[in-house]
Amino acid sequence: MTNSTVAVHQLKGGMVGMGMIFDETYRPFFENAYQQGIYDARTGVLKLEIAAVASRTGGRASKYKISAGDQINDFASYVEPDSIGQLLKHDVDFVCIATPDDRHYEATMAAIEAGKHVIVEKPSVLSMQQLDSIIATARDKQVLCKVVYHKLFDPDHKKLRTLVADDVLQHINTGYCTLLEPKQISGAQFAEWIQGRNPGTYVAVHYIKLIDFTFGGKLKSVSCSGQRGIVGEADGNTWDSTQLRLIYEYESGREAAFDIHTSWVTPDNFPGYVEQEVQFRFDNGIWNGHSRKRGVECTVEEKTPVSIKNSMNNHYNGTFVEPDGRRTQRGYGIEVLEEFAREVAYVEHGTDNQSREQRIGDLSAGYYNDIASDRQTVAAVHAMEAILEQHAAGNPDCVVKVNESGNGLVMYIPGQADGIVLYENPV
Ligand SMILES: NC(=O)c1ccc[n+]([C@@H]2O[C@H](COP(=O)([O-])OP(=O)(O)OC[C@H]3O[C@@H](n4cnc5c(N)ncnc54)[C@H](O)[C@@H]3O)[C@@H](O)[C@H]2O)c1
Predict the structure, then answer these.
(1) β-pair partners for 14
(2) pLDDT band at 311 (very low <50, low <70, confident <90, very high)
(3) For a pLDDT cut of 90, what percent of the chain falls above it?
(4) Which of 25, 29, 55 to mutate to test the pocket of ligand 1 (most atoms within 8 A of CB)?
(5) Which distant-in-sequence residues (6+ apart) come within 8 Å of 41 by Cβ?
(6) What is the DSSP letter of 311?
(7) Could you list the residue range(s) of the whole structural domain that residue 56 is in?
(8) What is the CA(199)–ligand 1 centre distance, in A?
């Protein structure tokens, strides 16, 4: 038997945004990797630290420091104005962006321009123009820019994609998806930034990506309706619920339609934390999925369904006592971040014969989580945002056509012959 040494590499991360998703996924990601490291055969063991964090007021960062204690290293905390600029002066290898969705672009661009690898929450950005400039800058600066879509890591969705890839489920025809968030999300959690926002961009995007990634095809058109009056004014621009419809065309020339219904005003006392249901219909089959019917139903007097939910998603993100007695927090919501850390480590410390540029190339163009793979998803979001804006301005029922008549995105308002070009280049 020979003794061999496993290389240990230290990576330093920056965190922009210290809100709900930080608590849910980034916190266990950083703490697990700080304490136990992450292993990758291409590099060795990776140890992670949070070097610095940026947020609006620093309130939650201070609370986190106290509650985490020695579970994480000490870190610098910066607040507005220019919290990100200050964070970027630190020696960080990568930056995680988890600000509200209409503030992703500035933070992502600033980090890339500073030469840092970036992972950004969904939806990456809200327009194709923003997406183009991020892709170009990331390529120019030779850094990774990745988007978090943990639903692609859900074992059920991986199985769906496998059955599609193996031609067991043949030719998608139609699909519907629904994702309902509780009122506490719109009423309390996001009260600070909800003005002018909608639940479609916030959560339908999970399913836009799932559909785009699983079934491929070319996005052809986008339409969207919505309701108001609970979170904001009945004639205002803040939306309670949205119904998005996407039409795709496949190589066969045949089409499929997908409806994605979302809301963030569902009663807080419903039994699942978020209600998620999908149905995909194929030429030869049907796939039905329901987050609350995955298997567990648990009732605890005086706890369910408020402080504990009757049905829990123990696959996404759960706290456990492991068989050996350790307390852990894990699931695919955290796994997706660990994969990014492995990618960064491979680029910077890989032991194969590839150059840094080749490694970036391999993990970029065509790679599932690369920002450039997000084109059709961002196109759908861009179209939805524009349609809802027109609706609030008194023009409901607009349709956006994709890659027709020489333009990438053109919005048609009912009763007006000429479309409005939202994006000129091909999507
Ligand atoms: N992957 C998922 O399932 C999932 C779930 C929830 C949220 N998200 C995404 O995460 C992002 C944040 O959502 P959240 O639920 O954590 O929101 P949140 O409102 O709880 O937290 C937002 C954080 O961003 C900070 N922030 C706001 N503006 C800033 C600025 N200009 N500079 C620096 N920091 C700023 C705030 O101080 C706060 O710490 C959103 O893009 C959302 O779509 C993803």
Answers:
(1) 52, 95
(2) confident
(3) 88
(4) 55
(5) none
(6) B
(7) 8-151+324-364
(8) 14
